[in-house]
Description:
The complex is a heterodimer of chains A (114) and B (111). With 114 residues, chain A is mostly beta strands. Chain A has no helices and eleven strands.
Amino acid sequence: xxxxxxxxxxxxxxxxxxxxxxxxxxxxxxxxxxxxxxxxxxxxxxxxxxxxxxxxxxxxxxxxxxxxxxxxxxxxxxxxxxxxxxxxxxxxxxxxxxxxxxxxxxxxxxxxxx
Amino acid sequence: xxxxxxxxxxxxxxxxxxxxxxxxxxxxxxxxxxxxxxxxxxxxxxxxxxxxxxxxxxxxxxxxxxxxxxxxxxxxxxxxxxxxxxxxxxxxxxxxxxxxxxxxxxxxxxx
Lengths: 114, 111
């Protein structure tokens, strides 16, 4: 069964460093999302992406964040200058079409900023 | 902005018990989702509902649109059902169909 994959599974970085989190959505899906979950808190929406552009972003998704779909398969989240409070589990999700509401989640990347 | 509330916050049950987890939301939605999160962190979609009731194996999900309330029932619970159960809603279809999540309920089923 097709699945969303994410790499790396864990990443440790120093404050101020750039990180790129990678996702490979299900191949025929058109809508892509990034969510994050700070330890012990609920999952929060970061950004949605469709037709090679951001369709919605949350207040969390400030200028330090960017997303890209560079090659038609990968979907990346970049944090330019990480802060301690960026430590969280980051989930990528995709869905097939605008009539399909189910989103399929990747296993997540656990980011720790020291 | 939709607020999603779940109850109870934590739940412990004995194997075989019938379990009910509740979810309420504040604003009209296009769909409600029940998700399962295991200790490793991965999230799996269990149900997507816009009306009525759905059943999959021992899991049953219902939604009452007028009351803005949904329930997830687990029949004949088993220790492998132990997980965090999360309710999430989408307010729009299409590209802007982001999920708004509840805090989740930690279910522990004892053998």
